[in-house]
Amino acid sequence: MSSSSVQLASTSVSLTLNLFLCWLIMRKSPESMGSYKHLMIYTSVFEIYYALLDAAADVTVFSHGFAVVVFREFSSKSWVSRPISMILVIAYCVTFGMSMAMLASHFVYRYSVTDSKFNLRYLAGRKYILLFLAPFFYAIWWTSALLFGYLPNEESDEYLKNRFLETYDLRIDQISYVSPKFYKYGTHGELLFNVPAWVAVTNCLMMVTSSIFCALYLGTKCYLNITKQLTTVTGISKFSANLQKQLFTALVIQTIIPVVIMYLPILVFFLCPMINVNLGYSSKLISDMVAFYPVVDPLPNMFIIKSYRNAILDIFRCGNSSGKIYTSKCTKSTQDSNNINMNSMTTVHQPDRF
């Protein structure tokens, strides 16, 4: 299957799954989930945007010597102008930074639910909106790094033009690309540090590191708090603690997914050119792996969170028993189940937010 076919298939499946997840969040979330469902919907909408952008940009990622290249084919007959073509490439790269901020926001929120002091200090009232603004802050920061150290110039054009011709049969004027080129040749052919590229990639690594720190540090503290709550609470409040555990488990799996199929491969992908190791044609796999991310990311929420899993099972049970998605009996059963969940679950620390 070609790279374009993979991206198109991934986009179609991702749109379907994320729209369905939005419906589950809006219609099947227990009351005790509180405002966390807004952050979940926000994430699903971002992944819909990411999937559409991935299809529109149709980029290819590869490495060549001490350079990493993200490019898309451009021609005078293209449906977009050359400046828009470059904007698509940059926007595609920036979504990686936004996804890192989104991941950190989830861990900050999940920990705040288990620590009322942390919540009152950092997320109470209007401070809560900072979780939604963080991806845009990272987007501005990431874009600034790209513009500073990744934009093409005559030197990078000269270094990459033969690779484009040999591998993709494209001339420099037929593509839009960004490329951190970590070294440059001196007057005597020696390798010198390309300072703008290193400054830019250092800023990008700072963003990645900050997100990973939030995930590891706050995630560990959140797990310890949840474990403690499950051993101390009894009766009705245990329903909330169990829901909290489900949400945290789904979040951990949602963290593992991009780490395995996105973050670690891209980290290796950047480290090799930094030490002047050519990955060769294996680097083409990165584009397909990144395109696969928004397809699998909604699945943990859909199948680990009990109320969503039950709603999905009810749909299939009703469909198999009557040939229709909903019958009056199934609808009543599902509504009764949701009402029981909503009435029996309360938050451990905050009655208005989970």
UniProtKB/TrEMBL annotation:
Highest rank taxon of the organism: Eukaryota
Record keywords: Cell membrane, Cell projection, Chemotaxis, Cilium, Glycoprotein, Membrane, Olfaction, Receptor, Sensory transduction, Transmembrane, Transmembrane helix
Pfam families xrefs: 7TM_GPCR_Str
GO biological process: chemotaxis; olfactory behavior
Membrane topology: Multi-pass membrane protein
Cellular component aspect of the GO annotation: ciliary membrane
Compartments (UniProt record): Cell projection, Cilium membrane
InterPro entries: 7TM_GPCR_serpentine_rcpt_Str
Residues that span the membrane, as ranges: 6-26, 47-71, 83-109, 129-151, 197-218, 247-271
GO molecular function: G protein-coupled olfactory receptor activity
Function: An odorant receptor which affects chemotaxis to the volatile odorant diacetyl. Specifies AWA neuronal cell fate via the odr-7 pathway.
Subunit structure of this chain's protein: Interacts with odr-4.
Family, similarity comment: Belongs to the nematode receptor-like protein str family.
Protein name: Serpentine receptor class r-10
Lineage: Eukaryota, Metazoa, Ecdysozoa, Nematoda, Chromadorea
